[in-house]
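Q: Here's a chain of 223 amino acids. Please give me its 3D structure as tokens.
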Amino acid sequence: MQKSTGLVVAVVVALVAGLMLGTLATRNIYSEPSLPAPELSSGQRGQLGIDKNINESTIDRYLYRDDSVYYDMRMLEDPADYEKIDGDRYLSGLVDGFEVIPYPYLVNVEGLPEEVGQSYTGHTLFTHKDDQYVANYKESEQILSDLFPKDKNIFLMCGGGGYAGMTKTLLTALGWDSNKIYVVGGYWYYEGEHNVQIKQDDGSFAFWKISYHNIDFSKLTKK
């Protein structure tokens, strides 16, 4: 009788374990689909670094992954006049799940269209000079590593795609795996289902809706 009871218990345990493993496998398959390798779009979008497969048209399929971080690289208000190229100098909206890290705080801005004028020219974590990224503060590398974990996929977005592509160039030059970084493109062209509107009907901006990463340069140690 004891042998029979032990056998029944063993069978039940095995069935429960099998069901649990099956459930975990199913969650893994359906909650986080495999990512295609980064692949540049053609033409001007490719020059900006925008991905062919994961971009403004498809990003909704890849949101809310535990193995990924999502960053919009715009400033809340950019000094550059992006209205001159049918853009928006204000961060008037963003895709849900994206947090904000202003690219102009990471490194000096270069290569903007001439008609938009100059962007932010204040303090930056790094300076791009002679094809090298030089840290301006003792904490620069640590801040970058904390914000952009190397063990996760990194999805980058901005207004038109430029700042996002520049961020990938910066990270790749400093040792990040380019195959884990996706330049999603520009919010200005996003028509998906996860839009978070920041600009209100009265013209004000609900910036409190944004998960914003501020860099307080006054607290950093200059090199």
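Q: Can you summarize the key feature?
A: Residues 2-31 form the longest helix (30 residues).
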